Automatic annotation (TrEMBL):
Keywords carried by this UniProt record: Transferase
Stated family: Belongs to the thiolase-like superfamily. HMG-CoA synthase family.
KW Transferase (keyword) present: yes
UniProt xrefs under SUPFAM superfamilies: Thiolase-like (SSF53901)
Protein's name in the database: Hydroxymethylglutaryl-CoA synthase
GO process terms (BP): acetyl-CoA metabolic process
Organism expressing this protein natively: Bombiscardovia coagulans
Cited Pfam families: HMG_CoA_synt_C, HMG_CoA_synt_N
Gene Ontology MF term list: hydroxymethylglutaryl-CoA synthase activity
Binding residue positions for (3S)-3-hydroxy-3-methylglutaryl-CoA: 30, 144, 243, 276
Length: 387
């Protein structure tokens, strides 16, 4: 039986961050409110020249080679931080990566679920076109505003995945369980550059939809907790995933639950350092687990729970492939996180308040990351220029 899934994946995050202990002191709260209560440690801060296009291209560039470029038949970008109401961010990335014109290119929006929607579209595509591959990119900048309740759950970053019929990392099973319902737990109107949220209600919807898809998956004999090596969650902040995990304590046997809990801790390492990256949060968790858990072996089966406010959820499953570590770059990712610049609170606030021009005048941006191959150069006549 043919298998399809993730062949390679990589992530990029801006080279600057705010330490949440510093932020807690500045906001006059106990740091443990952030470190334990939210479960986060640091938060990536995106400079103007690293928008979702630049970050997405930077995540994807290390995966590229000429053979891959010619075999790509689809590029999907999942984002809820779109830069244009009409033109897809994917088209900018398509040009930056030098991809062929003879392929489909699109952007998908459904809050944090957009990346999973892109992955599912990509899987359907490669199953129908096994000679082709797909590139799925999740790229987002989470913004809630300074001194707001959601401030501590901001972040920025992108994850890129190659999807095809030779899944060197994770073979994804065709059977999934989905749920959709219209809610107002989190939203951002077109006229606002920050999101609105009903935090407690959002948590309730998240947990309710996880329970719904888990129970249906169990009825379909998909969960099989005795051979489930790990369960990954959409983690806008690690405490949210932990609460989802706790709903299973009475539903799975003690041995399985202990194993899933232990692996969960490795899946949140990167997210605790980067913060909320919306569509990419689940896949950053996948990468974190694969690169930080040395006990994983070929054949280990994962469950992956994706959630997007508004709201849509999906639970799907995959199996680790032989030599999966050869398709990862843990040292590079560790170095990228270690070598970021720590911003003072004043610097962070100044960075947050910077804006791109909106009147059509010319704006040239300073380069923030000399190790990143792609960036936004500036704007002129309402058009963005990248390199």
């Amino acid at each position: 039986m043919d298998s399809f899934g993730i062949e390679k994946l990589n992530f990029y995050t801006p080279n600057q961050y705010i330490d949440l202990v510093d932020l807690a002191h500045a906001r006059g709260v106990d740091p443990n409110k952030y470190l334990i209560g939210i479960g986060q440690e640091k938060m990536a801060v995106a400079p103007l020249d690293q928008d979702i296009v630049a970050m997405g291209a930077n995540a994807a560039e290390p995966l590229m080679d000429e053979d891959l470029r010619t075999s790509l038949g689809l590029l999907v970008v999942g984002t809820e931080s779109g830069i244009d109401q009409s033109k897809a961010a994917a088209l900018f990335i398509h040009q930056l990566l030098g991809l062929p014109e003879s392929m489909r290119v699109m952007e998908i929006k459904e809050a944090c679920y957009g990346g999973t929607a892109g992955l599912m579209v990509a899987l359907d595509f490669v199953r129908s076109h096994p000679e082709s591959k797909a590139l799925v990119i999740t790229s987002d900048i989470a913004r809630y505003g300074l001194q707001t309740p959601g401030e501590v759950t901001q972040g920025a970053g992108a994850v890129a995945m190659i999807v095809g019929n030779k899944p060197g990392v994770l073979a994804i099973e065709p059977n999934t369980v989905v749920a959709s319902r219209s809610t107002y737990d989190f939203w951002r109107p077109n006229y606002s550059n920050v999101a609105f949220a009903q935090g407690k209600y959002s948590e309730e919807v998240y947990l309710s939809m996880f329970t719904e898809v888990w129970d249906r998956a169990e009825n379909m004999s998909l969960t099989q907790s005795d051979n489930l090596a790990a369960l990954l969650f959409h983690i806008p902040f690690s405490k949210m995933g932990r609460k989802g995990l706790r709903t299973l304590e009475s539903k799975v046997d003690a041995t399985s639950y202990a194993r899933i809990v232990e692996r969960f801790e490795n899946s949140i390492i990167y997210g605790q350092q980067v913060g909320n990256i919306y569509t990419g949060s689940l896949y950053l968790g996948l990468l974190s687990l694969l690169e930080n858990d040395t006990s994983l072996v070929e054949g280990d089966r994962f469950g992956l729970f994706s959630y997007g406010s508004g709201s849509e959820a999906e639970l799907f499953f995959g199996t680790i492939q032989p030599d999966f570590r050869a398709h990862l770059d843990a040292k590079k990712h560790s170095s990228m996180l270690k070598n970021r610049r720590r911003l003072s609170v004043a610097e962070y606030e100044h960075e947050f308040e910077k804006e791109l021009v909106q009147d059509g005048t010319e704006q040239i941006l300073k380069r923030s990351d000399f190790n990143a191959p792609h960036r936004l150069i500036g704007l002129n006549k309402h058009q963005r220029s990248y390199c």
